[in-house]
């Protein structure tokens, strides 16, 4: 039996679909962004994550991204959610599921509109350069709040999603340190798995590169192409939380978390270092 492969949309159909989605995204943004700006004039606590979650949910549905969720994310503050990074769409997917702040690389602030959006979502932008490690630790330490949950992509970059790259352990150091008597952070690994694109399962010939963003791809053409498709289906698996005990080595922790995240993919390789 021949595997069913979806026909590529014609140029007119793709253009109409793209236009409709852009209009839907703009309408959601026009309504919800001013509301979030107003909310943040009064609070930066848990209530400031309600509107961003609505906004990301509207974006996800407008883009045709369906999510299959396995497990339960831990929320309520003090949780660092750690997982693999497939695409710029990860923020939309996870933002629609989690009332949490994202830790993102500072280069993203140069993307059109990202600095403003990041401020409304309370994103923590950090430098990945080794020479900035001390400043990054100080910056994060000053902004961390126990009533917030955080999302970290410790691979440091996006990938095709077929495997999980080694986790960079340097950022875990901050979450292993705590003042005497202060509650510790709980880590919860999660795995994102791309299942289908444009109605075609990956194992039946679905175009992984239409969703996953990696290598020398350019963001503009990548987004334009995806918005002309019918969408994608993604599975997000939330694994059981991991409590951090005293004296835990950050490199050993990174390897342990990597094994959990990578183990949920059909194919994965062991990391060569962290």
Automatic annotation (TrEMBL):
Record keywords: Acyltransferase, Lipid biosynthesis, Lipid metabolism, Membrane, Transferase, Transmembrane, Transmembrane helix
Domain of life of the organism encoding this protein: Bacteria
Biological pathway: Lipid metabolism
Start and end residues of each Phospholipid/glycerol acyltransferase domain: 79-195
Segments forming a coiled coil: none
Listed PANTHER family: 1-ACYL-SN-GLYCEROL-3-PHOSPHATE ACYLTRANSFERASE (PTHR10434), 1-ACYL-SN-GLYCEROL-3-PHOSPHATE ACYLTRANSFERASE-RELATED (PTHR10434:SF64)
GO molecular function, one term: 1-acylglycerol-3-phosphate O-acyltransferase activity
Keyword Transferase: yes
GO biological process, alphabetically ordered: phosphatidic acid biosynthetic process
Segments traversing the membrane: 19-39
Alphabetized CDD domains for the sequence: LPLAT_AGPAT-like (cd07989)
Pfam families on file: Acyltransferase
The protein's name: Phospholipid/glycerol acyltransferase domain-containing protein
Keyword Lipid biosynthesis found: yes
